[in-house]
Design a protein that fits this description.
With about 375 residues, the protein is an alpha+beta fold. It has 6 helices and 17 strands.
Length: about 375
C-alpha cells in the first residue's frame, strides 16, 4: 500500500528542508571549532605592584609693589611682568613598589629661551638658546621606592631681558617663551623584565609680555600591576559537543522526515485549492443544483475567469449556479443563465494534472502486471 504524504506549499517545504540542512551544517561547524580550539584556562597571579608620579610645582615671588600684599603668588593666576622678582620651581618624581628592586637612571634640568611663530595651531621654532641649570645626575639603588626632588630658582627678569635683547638685535618680532624642564629616564628591574620610564616635566613661561600665565606639561600619575599568566589545559566541553551532536541529528532527521512523509502540492491539490477559494469567496452568491441540462437552442459564451462571470451575474441580476458533486474536484463549471443565453466559466484541466493522472494509471497497470506474473509463477 502506497503511503499517503502530507501535501504542503512547495517553497515552504523547501524552506524547512533548507533550514534543517543549515542547522546540521552549523552544528557540525561548531563541533569542529570546539575540537580545534585551544582548551586552556588562564590563571593570573599578581607578582608586582607599583605607582609612579612625576610633577612640577611653582610659586611666583613678587617685588614690593602697590598691588600685592603677599610676597608670593600661587599657581594658575595671571602675573604682571613688572612685579615679578623670581619663580621658584619644584620638580619631583616618585616611584613606590611592592618589593625591593634595582632602580637606576639619570636626569638633568635645563632652561630654553626660544622664539617662535604659529602656523596652523603649531609652533615653529625660529631660534633657541639653552641654559644648563642642573647637570646630568645619575642614581642607582636597590629599594622599593625612589624619589627625585629638585628646587630651581628661575631669575625671570634676567630671561625676559635676554629675550628682549635678541628681538632688538635680530629686528624680527616673534613670540618668545621660557621652557624650564627636567629630562631623564629611570629603569626599574621588576620581575617580568625591566620597566623604563621617561622623565620629562616642564613649565612654559611667556616672555616679552606685560602679563603672562604659566603652563605645566608632562605630569604623569600611574598605578599598575605586573601579572604572571599561567595556562592550564582543560578538557573539551563534552556537554556542548553533545548539544551540537543532537542538533546535527535533529537536522538530518528533519530532512529525512520531510523527504519521506511530505510532498509539494501537485496539480490536483492546486485545483482543489482554486475551487475552494471560489466557493469561499463567492459561495453566498451561488446556487447549487442537482442536475444541469443545457438546451440546444441556447447561445453559449465561455468566460476566462470567475470574476468576469460574477460581473455578468451582477449586471443581469441573475445567480451563479453549479451542479452538486460528491467530490469537490468534479465542480469545474459555473453558470449564469439569461433568456436564450448561457455564460460558462470552466476550470480547465491543468497539463501537469493530466500528466500526473497518466503516471498514476501507468503505475496501477505496472502493479497489476506484477500481480499477474506472481500468480502465474504460483500456478
Amino acid at each position: 500500500m502506497k503511503m499517503k504524504k502530507v501535501r504542503m506549499n512547495k517553497y515552504f517545504r523547501l524552506g524547512i528542508i533548507a533550514a534543517a540542512g543549515l542547522l546540521s551544517i552549523g552544528a557540525v561547524f561548531l563541533i569542529v571549532k570546539e575540537y580545534q580550539a585551544e582548551h586552556v584556562r588562564e590563571e593570573r597571579e599578581t607578582i608586582y605592584e607599583y605607582s609612579m608620579q612625576s610633577k612640577v610645582n611653582y610659586k611666583v615671588h613678587v617685588k614690593p609693589n602697590i598691588l600685592y600684599e603677599e610676597e608670593q603668588l600661587g599657581e594658575g593666576q595671571m602675573y604682571l611682568t613688572e612685579f615679578v622678582d623670581y619663580i621658584s620651581t619644584s620638580f619631583s618624581s616618585d616611584f613606590i613598589g611592592s618589593d625591593n628592586i634595582d632602580i637606576d637612571g639619570n636626569y638633568a634640568i635645563g632652561a630654553e629661551v626660544r622664539g617662535y611663530t604659529t602656523k596652523n595651531d603649531e609652533k615653529q621654532i625660529i631660534w633657541r638658546k639653552e641654559f644648563e641649570l642642573v647637570p646630568e645626575q645619575t642614581f642607582k639603588q636597590t629599594s622599593d621606592k625612589h624619589s627625585i626632588n629638585r628646587e630651581i630658582k628661575i631669575n625671570f627678569p634676567e630671561y625676559n631681558k635676554f629675550a628682549q635683547s635678541v628681538l632688538e638685535a635680530s629686528k624680527v618680532n616673534l613670540s618668545v617663551e621660557l621652557v624650564v624642564k627636567l629630562v631623564g629616564s629611570q629603569t626599574m628591574d621588576i620581575p617580568k623584565g625591566p620597566l623604563k620610564d621617561e622623565l620629562q616635566t616642564s613649565i612654559i613661561i611667556p616672555l616679552n609680555n606685560g602679563y603672562f600665565n604659566i603652563t605645566k606639561e608632562g605630569e604623569i600619575e600611574k598605578n599598575d600591576i605586573v601579572e604572571e599568566v599561567t595556562k592550564i589545559p582543560v578538557d573539551i566541553n563534552r556537554r556542548w559537543i553533545g548539544v551540537c551532536g543532537g542538533l546535527v541529528g535533529a537536522g538530518i532527521l528533519g530532512i529525512i522526515l520531510m523527504m519521506l512523509f511530505t510532498a509539494p502540492l501537485n496539480a490536483e491539490d492546486l485545483k482543489k485549492k482554486k475551487i475552494k477559494k471560489i466557493l469561499n469567496e463567492h459561495g453566498s452568491r451561488m446556487v447549487v443544483v442537482d442536475h444541469i441540462k443545457i438546451a440546444e437552442d441556447l447561445e453559449i459564451y465561455h468566460v476566462n475567469n470567475i470574476e468576469d462571470l460574477i460581473k455578468i451575474a451582477d449586471e443581469i441580476e441573475k445567480p451563479v449556479f453549479y451542479q452538486q458533486q460528491d467530490e469537490i474536484l468534479k465542480i469545474t463549471k459555473f453558470y449564469v443563465k439569461e433568456q436564450g443565453v448561457l455564460y460558462i466559466y470552466e476550470i480547465k484541466e491543468d497539463k501537469t494534472l493530466v500528466l500526473e493522472k497518466v503516471k498514476e494509471i501507468e503505475e496501477i497497470k505496472e502493479v497489476e502486471e506484477i500481480k499477474e506474473i506472481k500468480e502465474e509463477i504460483t500456478i
